[in-house]
Amino acid sequence: MLSRAAPFLLSAGERVLPLAAHVPFFLQRFTLQRSLNQVFAKAMQEGLFEILEQRWMRLQVTDLNLSWCLSKEPGKNRLLIKDRAPVEVTISGNWREFLLLASRQEDPDTLFFRRRLQIAGDTDLGLAVKNMIDSLDSDDLPSWLWQTIETLGKEAVPAAG
After folding, report:
1. What is the mean pLDDT of the chain?
2. What values do phi and psi take at 79, rounded to 5?
3. What strands lie across the sheet with 66-72, from one edge to the other?
4. CA nearest 82: which of 115, 52, 43, 104?
5. Can you give the pLDDT at residue 161?
6. What is the secondary structure of 103-160 as a DSSP string?
């Protein structure tokens, strides 16, 4: 069912996602912080996000004009999101590239090598974050969420040729 709806959902995303830039930041922060902390609770307990403790990275979705600064709260298993922070690294790209990364439809190294995703600033931290993202286990996500991400990612894969 979801695979049949995927082309429609991606097409709708092209029109609806740009509206997210008009959502007040406090709502973006509330939604993202709550969601990310729930989705990545196990990974944080396992210490996967320690690389971001007391360090800030910016995630920038360029085609949607959205960006968020992320860090791990010192001594707690909780991600923080701010609109401005002393970021050490920025990872940027279009939303479809982030979808391909999240759905594991394209290798992270390929996305960065082909400059479809870019790292600016502290490249060592950026590569550590990229490796952390790559090591996240999809089995730790709620099955409905992983199925949705994977299905949409498969539909978003650029046509060969």
Report:
1. 89
2. -85, 145
3. 79-82, 66-72, 57-61, 89-93, 117-121
4. 52
5. 36
6. TTSS-HHHHHHTTSEEEEE-HHHHHHHHHHHHH--GGGS-HHHHHHHHHHHHHHSPPP
Q: Is pLDDT above 90 for 11? A: no
Residue partners of 69: CB distance under 8 A and separation at least 6: 56, 57, 58, 81, 82, 83, 84, 85, 87
Alpha-carbon distance values, 120 to 46, 132, 134, 137 (Å): 27, 17, 18, 26
Mean pLDDT of the 39-54 span:
92
Rounded CA-CA distance 35/38 in Å is 5
Fold of 2-10+39-156: Nonspecific Lipid-transfer Protein; Chain A (3.30.1050)
Tokens of 72: 């791990």
Beta strands, E only, 10-85? 57-61, 66-72, 79-82
